[in-house]
């Protein structure tokens, strides 16, 4: 995957397409991180969540893992020099990141929808191992259409198909449909604490807690759940 091609215009495209909806999804449960002291951000992009987190929690140490060099460079430029000592930046994919554990919170925003399900199983195990017991995982992402109205469900389905087509063409993401993240998270040892959907978009903010000392990781490949379109 490579997001360098769209990095310069990513924020503009986000605002044109969704306004502030994606940022609202990113920050919805941010108050739960107010007392956290060691936070990991995965796939942070241009740093919109990072900036808000730094403002609302002046004591936390933040570790950011971002594989796109263009995204990484832009994010780095926005970090005030006086606060640079509390932000560690890694320009590499999470698959290669040496997660030694000790984080009491982790944030993933529009991250998992780039991966195939078998890849997510492995990454969730790594995510669990990087967290302390009772560590929090704050997630924001697109979700499968849940609308009962046929026209809205059709709009959501077509929107998701368009987004996957766009990112597969421009960024070479490996996935082509949404994974059953809640089910995989449960199997990896996470318990859902809270969930908020953001109408009228197929978006959700989720808050999980690591509920076991050792994650229950599965070595298997599951069939994808396809997005149904009500023609």
**Unreliable stretches:** 218-231
- How would you state the average pLDDT, rounded? 85
Quantity of strands, as a count? 7
Tell me roughly what share of residues is in helical segments: 25-40%
Number of helices: 7
Order of helices and strands: HHEHEHEEHEHHEE
Give the end-to-end Cα distance, rounded to a whole number of Å.
Answer: 32 Å
The backbone outline, from C-alpha atoms, is globular
- Can you list the strand order of the major beta sheet? 3-2-1-4-5-7-6
Oligomer: single chain
Radius of gyration: 17 Å
Main sheet attributes: strand count, strand direction, barrel closure: 7 strands, mixed
Find the structural class using helix and strand composition: alpha/beta
The percentage of residues in β strands lies in: 15-25%
Please summarize what this structure is.
The chain has 231 residues and is α/β, with parallel strands linked by helices. 33% of the residues lie in helices and 21% in strands. The chain contains 7 helices and 7 strands, in the order ααβαβαββαβααββ.
Describe this structure in words.
By secondary structure, this protein is of the alpha/beta class. Helices cover 33% and strands 21% of the residues. It has a 7-stranded mixed sheet with strand order 3-2-1-4-5-7-6, with helices on both faces. It is globular and about 50 Å long. The C terminus is likely disordered.
């Amino acid at each position: 995957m490579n997001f360098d091609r769209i990095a310069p215009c990513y924020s503009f495209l986000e605002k044109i397409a969704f306004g502030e909806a994606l940022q609202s999804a990113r920050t919805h449960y941010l108050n739960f991180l107010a007392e956290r002291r060691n936070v990991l951000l995965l796939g942070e992009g241009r740093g919109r969540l990072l900036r808000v987190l730094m403002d609302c929690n002046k004591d936390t140490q933040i570790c950011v893992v971002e594989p796109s060099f263009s995204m990484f460079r832009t994010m780095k430029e926005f970090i005030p020099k006086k606060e640079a000592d509390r932000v560690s930046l890694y320009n590499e994919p999470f698959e290669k990141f040496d997660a030694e554990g000790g984080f009491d919170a982790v944030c993933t925003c529009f991250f998992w929808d780039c991966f195939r399900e078998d890849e997510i199983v492995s990454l969730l195990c790594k995510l669990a191992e990087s967290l302390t017991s009772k560590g929090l995982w704050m997630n924001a992402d697109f979700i499968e259409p849940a609308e009962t109205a046929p026209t809205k469900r059709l709009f959501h389905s077509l929107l998701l198909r368009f987004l996957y087509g766009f990112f597969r063409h421009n960024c070479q993401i490996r996935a082509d449909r949404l994974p059953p993240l809640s089910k995989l998270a449960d199997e990896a040892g996470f318990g859902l604490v809270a969930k908020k959907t953001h109408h009228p978009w197929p978006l959700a903010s989720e808050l999980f807690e690591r509920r076991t000392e050792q994650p229950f990781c599965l070595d298997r490949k599951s069939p994808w759940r396809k997005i149904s379109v009500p023609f």
